[in-house]
Amino acid sequence: MTKANVPVSKNEIIEVEFTDLTHDGAGVAKVDGFPLFVPNGLPGEKAQVKVVGVKKGYGFGRLMELTEASGQRVDPPCPVYKRGCGGCQLQHLSYEGQLEFKRKQVEDVLQRIGKLDNVPVLPTLGMGDEPWRYRNKAQVPVGEREGQLITGFFRRGSHEIVEMDTCIITGDTADEAIQAVKDILNKYGISPYEEKRHKGIIRHVIARFGKTTNELMIVLVTNGKDLPNRKKIVDDIVQTIPQVKSVVQNVNTRRTNVIFGDETKVIWGSEYIYDYIGDIKFAISARSFYQINPQQTKVLYDQALKYAELTGDETVIDAYCGIGTISLFLAQKAKKVYGVEIVPEAIEDARRNAELNGMDNAEFAVGESEVVIPRWKEQGITPDVIVVDPPRKGCDEALLQTIIEMKPKRVVYVSCNPSTLARDLRILEDGGFKTVEVQPVDMFPQTTHVECVAQLIVKEGN
Ligand SMILES: C[S@@+](CC[C@H](N)C(=O)[O-])C[C@H]1O[C@@H](n2cnc3c(N)ncnc32)[C@H](O)[C@@H]1O
Fold first, then answer.
1. Atom 27 of ligand 1, nearest CA residue
2. Interface predicted TM-score of the whole assembly (ipTM), two decimals
């Protein structure tokens, strides 16, 4: 489309009808074929929209007034959602609508990118009637209002901190702990970190909670080692919040958006809190990666286990294994599990977790999956099942080639990004595998994130 025939202009107010949602939850309206992306619009709705940006092939709008609402529209229960909190994107869509949005998104992407037209994408496994208060971790930036320290959220697309007293996707214990810690820091006059001047003390407060054990860890991220009244602050935290088992200080003096600095010190209690997924116990330290929705993590891992179809005789490889969560889940039903992960500390956690659970049939290696697994192949390891759970960018192509050469009976692909899942499934299909089905799992209700598990088997004759 040339500039001359773009059918809308900036600041114009027009009536549109939404026909779709983008992967990040904005409504899509077509004006003479020209797509306009409008946050908060839902398919089937009509609205007055102000055009706020025009590019060559698409534009952006702001919803001014709904003239016809969708039956799927609900009133967002969170008071800060409408004020632009960057945490959730779909609170205005019914939960049923969210689950179908995620399923359809996966189906569309599998067809468009993977050319996988006949692969069944099952209904998304959701959280039932309670898709709220699921997060076991709250991680909040600290700011200031009228000389008082406040905790809040970053406004969507900015670094402005907006005050928030409660987050309805965070579990009660972690949510209440953040407020209690904020009050204690205020009592001792601890100054909030100011990004612009790189001054002030407290940058972030983090609360991590083991839902099955009721154990809580508080992490104070400070701009420097100094924390005035540290002992009194810790005493107050321990006395006010009964679930606390660990208080940790992390020092981050860098001018960066990254939350954690390199120095972490336990200032009270234990280095770990514990939690169970199913029957397996995990030790969680301040820096460990651990899934944030425990209820749905169990659903996800159960699905991976189901697709692995283990009988107890199998050798399994778990690529991108993190702290060994899926590996240990699989190890309950397999003869032997080999896990590989690039972060050395995560592998230390994985080994500790195997020991904690008395599991001696799981072995872990540090390194890139695409380097370590070919080496295992050279050593004669022949897996019956390979599980992969890569980061958003998907699997390295060299790893996919190794999987094709190793030809396990089944591949279970756990994915947090449908686009790279579709790309990788196409490569595996071309290499002799068949995608049996894809199961979306809603790990992050109210947000646009989609997690999937896919099962692949070797095609007949391969
Ligand atoms: C989506 S997480 C999965 C973690 C784990 N399976 C779980 O459920 O907790 C992806 C993991 O892959 C690791 N990773 C990234 N690139 C890697 C690579 N090339 N080889 C091995 N691990 C890698 C990351 O450090 C991260 O722990």
1. 322
2. 0.99
